[in-house]
Each structure stands twice: as structure tokens, then as C-alpha cells.
UniProtKB/TrEMBL annotation:
UniProt lineage: Bacteria, Pseudomonadati, Pseudomonadota, Alphaproteobacteria, Rhodobacterales
Annotated InterPro entries: 3-OHbutyrate_DH, NAD(P)-bd_dom_sf, Sc_DH/Rdtase_CS, SDR, SDR_fam
Protein name (database record): 3-hydroxybutyrate dehydrogenase
UniProt key word Oxidoreductase: yes
Native source species: Rubellimicrobium rubrum
Signal peptide, first to last residue: none
GO aspect biological process, one term: monocarboxylic acid metabolic process
Gene3D superfamilies for the chain: NAD(P)-binding Rossmann-like Domain
Keywords: Oxidoreductase
Length: 261
């Protein structure tokens, strides 16, 4: 009989987890019984209130730890501060759009630092403990852009492709040690950030909401539907389960068919 809370007693660190996909993953892991460390670069009362609310809702321990994922020392300190890191979800990410010849070098460096290098640093900090305990789950939130490309997103596409490669290398290095590493590759997900973009897209294309979603935002997503943060969270929780113990070094696309084209 399956456990109602199969991750009870585990501790999960989720980067970039006060909203959107990261929060969706944190909620699903907490619902499965995991204690959770939330993270963002801010350190406001709202951040700590969110942790308390989640802890109360799911009856688990939830803490908020501020860390700037563009800084290696912060990435490693985040994992160290968790005490135990059984589950590591590298979700933090940013985007910048510009042609390559106009792409600001500082933006390139920042996107690569947050979207790729942070996962290297947190993984390096988490692996010794996972090895010692003989169990661990690493879930990297990549993107459909980790498997395919779009113009004007050179840094994001390069970082997400790199994150898929890091996932595979990690999986090979820990194979047979009770640790898995996988990447989730979402397409368009209806997050507050994406929701906020819809009015601007409506204005730019002179379209109503339904048309701009269908013909602009979801043009490459054959299902014609956004993925939800709950679906991404559910996928992450599955990858942390015993049922996924032999799933490692791979990508799972949650993209409505985008990468099937």
C-alpha cells in the first residue's frame, strides 16, 4: 500500500520558490510530507510569512532562507543551512531577450550564473550528504529551451541546454548510490509572471486575450493549453518517489507537445 505522505522525514531545498513554478513544486513536496526550505533573493516579512503558512497548511517544517543564486557562496550556504538536503530542486531562473550582437555581456553572465552555475554549486554542496545517507533526489527545472531553441534568447537557451547536460553528468557520477538526477522541461506554464505578460501582448498584437494566448504565446505548444504549476510540482514529486528510483539522467517534458514537433 502506497504511503499517503511518501516523503515524510525528507528535507527538500527548492531554489527560487516564493512564487510560480518553484512555489508549485514546494507545495507538492510539502503535501507529500517533505520538510521544505524556501528560497529567494529577498528577505521580507512576506517571505517568512509564506513559509509559516505552508508549514501550517501541510503540517511540515517550512523555513525561508535568503540566498542570491548569482553568487556561488550563497548557493552553497543555502544547502548547508538546510542541515539535511535529501531533495534538491534547482528552479531559480531569469530571462533576457536580445539579439546576440546586442546582448549585454553583464546580462549574459547573470543569466548563466542563475540558470546554470547555481545548480552546479548547490549540487556540489548537496551530494556529500546524499552519498552519506545513500539516498537523494536532484530535480533541475530546465525548459523546452533546454531541448530546442528560439531566437533572441541565447543566454537562456545556452543555460538550459547546459543544465540538461549537468543533469546527465550528475546522474552518471551518482549511479548506483541511491541518488537520481533528472530535469523537468516545461513549456509555457501559467505563472503570475506569464499572466502579467498577457495584457502587454494583447496591446502589442491588437488581439483579445484568447487569441493572443492561442496564436502568440502558445503558438509552439500543440496542446493549446498552458501547463500549470501544480502539474510541474506533481512531476517533481513523482521524480522524488520510490516509483522513480530507476529514472535518472533524463528529461521529462511538460510542454503540451512542443518538443514533439
Amino acid at each position: 500500500m502506497a504511503l499517503a505522505r511518501p516523503l515524510s522525514g525528507r528535507t527538500a531545498v527548492v531554489t527560487g520558490s516564493t512564487s510560480g513554478i518553484g512555489l508549485g513544486i514546494a507545495r507538492e513536496l510539502a503535501a507529500a510530507g517533505a520538510n521544505v526550505v524556501l528560497n529567494s533573493f529577498t528577505d521580507d516579512r512576506a517571505d517568512h510569512d509564506l513559509a509559516r503558512q505552508l508549514g501550517h497548511e501541510f503540517e511540515v517544517e517550512v523555513r525561508y532562507v535568503q540566498a542570491d543564486m548569482s553568487k556561488a557562496v550563497d548557493c552553497r550556504a543555502l544547502v548547508d543551512s538546510s542541515g539535511t538536503c535529501d531533495i534538491l530542486v534547482n528552479n531559480a531562473g531569469i530571462q533576457h531577450v536580445a539579439p546576440i550582437e546586442e546582448f549585454p555581456p553583464a546580462k549574459w553572465d547573470l543569466v548563466l550564473a542563475i540558470n546554470l552555475s547555481s545548480a552546479f554549486h548547490t549540487t556540489a554542496a548537496a551530494l556529500p550528504g546524499m552519498r552519506a545517507r545513500g539516498w537523494g533526489r536532484i530535480v533541475n527545472v530546465a525548459s523546452a529551451h533546454g531541448l530546442t531553441a528560439s531566437p533572441y534568447k541565447s543566454a537562456y537557451v545556452a543555460a538550459k541546454h547546459g543544465l540538461v547536460g549537468l543533469t546527465k553528468t550528475t546522474a552518471l557520477e551518482v549511479a548506483g548510490q541511491g541518488i537520481t538526477a533528472n530535469a523537468i522541461c516545461p513549456g509555457y506554464v501559467l505563472t503570475p509572471l506569464v499572466e502579467a505578460q498577457i495584457p502587454d501582448q494583447m496591446k502589442a498584437h491588437d488581439m483579445d486575450r484568447e487569441t493572443v494566448i492561442r496564436e502568440v504565446m502558445l503558438a509552439r505548444q500543440p496542446s493549446g493549453q498552458f501547463a500549470t504549476v501544480e502539474q510541474i510540482g506533481g512531476t517533481a514529486a513523482f521524480l522524488c518517489s520510490d516509483a522513480a528510483a530507476q529514472i535518472t539522467g533524463t528529461t521529462i517534458s511538460v510542454d503540451g507537445g512542443w518538443t514533439a514537433l
